[in-house]
Amino acid sequence: MAISDVSKIHAPEPHRHVKPPADPSALEHEQLLQGEFWRTIPAYKDIDEPTFLDHVWQYRNSVKTVDELANTVQDLVSPKFLEDLRTGFHRAPMNVRVSPYAMALIDWANPYDDPIRTQFIPLASRLLPDHPKLSLDSLHELEDSPMPGLTHRYVDKALFLPTNVCPVYCRFCTRSYAIGGDTDVVEKAELATDPKRWQDAFDYIASRPELEDIVISGGDTYQLPAKSLKRIGDALLDIPNVRRMRFATKGPAILPSKILTDHAWTEALISVVDRGRTMGKDVVLHTHFNSPNEITWITEKAMRLLFERGVFVRNQSVLIRGVNDDKETMRLLVKRLGFLNVHPYYVYMHDMVKGVEDLRTTIQTAIDIEKFVRGSTAGYNTPLFLCDAPGGGGKRDLHSFDYYDRENGIAVYSAPSVKPGEWFLYYDPIDQLSKDAQARWKDPATQDAMVADAIKKAKG
């Protein structure tokens, strides 16, 4: 065979494109906000990059009152907006605390519809009446607490709450019964906020060999001093039955620069992660991004540092009306998290807590969004959509309801490995139901009949 004939046999075939080239919008998740974006805020217009990134400056300049907000944004908002805000502050179950980073990401030309404002700053004009089945501690964490600051619901997992403060306060917080200071409408419950109570929790965990998985939350572990973070981490690692630990924080979403400038805290976290690895124990960071707008070049830099130092980061979002209850927005969030090596883990239904009915949406909305998002990226970067069953049933796959009455907005779940024989009900917000269904919810007797009928049908 001639050499020319051999070359013809082995010549590569042209590439066959089975899909058309992707539209540039498919790469939107890579387009992060750049530059000194905070200078558009009047109070920050002269703040240089080193100052803005400094976590101490961020804490000291966090907005906590209406007057502080007005002094920060100045003429970017109207007097009508400020009055709406002032009334909203008094009616909110949570304190208000917003970092300059988060303040700088709000679109102050349209604050009513901005997803970051929606999460942290209450407006009276947007509030809705509470669903009649709401409660302050909707997940009944206090009922599953053997002592303040420790919840033991699942067989092999416990939730440890060593602090009751956060770098920002989310309006939708499931722990509004305990987090932050007392408000005009809520007197807060106690958590394990001192070392003596920490030790009580450690002793309990050590006495229960089935406890292998500990979530350290609060409050927010961002607020633990570096020495306390390491003390808690090492104490839990020293308990033989503890195999897995998760430090939970909203911090990377609303104050990512702390990871870059609070070297003591970051090194304390890394040291616990590294020590755990040498012991064959898994220590990770769980965080809480809800909007793709929360992610900037600062976030990317902070997450890159953790990635390079071997800290695995997972994300837990909450499905919030006006924030991420849109299919394209959720897909962008999921893709953007994957771009940062932050693994999307859960998307929760908004818990049934008081004072934030305007933020909840329906089970069907979540089902539709999950169907849309699945397949848009790798499976391990696709979150599981969950309902944390009201009443203490624990996390249930959104689709695993035993019965869902879409007309009246009642989803019934069971939890055979958590609380066998019990039924747990999640209720869609009434304002998103039909007019006939809204009318039925106004009558207590009809409410009871609808609930009884849903449980009957769940039983089959």
Overall number of structural domains: 2
Uncertain ranges: 182-189
CATH class of the largest domain: Alpha Beta
What is the element string, with H for helices and E for strands? HHHHHHHEEHEHEHHHEHEHEHEEEEEHH
Please name the defining characteristics of this protein.
460 residues; alpha/beta; 2 domains; three-stranded antiparallel beta sheet; 17 helices; globular
Question: How would you describe this structure to a colleague?
Answer:
The chain has helices at residues 3-10, 49-53, 55-60, 66-73, 79-91, 100-105, 115-120, 195-207, 226-237, 251-254, 257-261, 263-278, 297-308, 327-339, 363-373, 435-440, 444-459; strands at residues 150-151, 157-160, 213-216, 244-248, 282-287, 313-319, 342-349, 384-389, 394-397, 403-405, 410-414, 423-427. The chain is of the alpha/beta class and 460 residues long. The protein has two domains: 37-126, no CATH class; 142-406 and 415-423, Aldolase class I (TIM Barrel, Alpha-Beta Barrel), CATH 3.20.20. The chain has a nine-stranded mixed β-sheet with strand order 1-2-3-4-5-6-7-8-9. The longest helix is centred in the middle third of the chain and has 16 residues, at 263-278. The chain is globular and about 60 Å long. The termini are far apart.
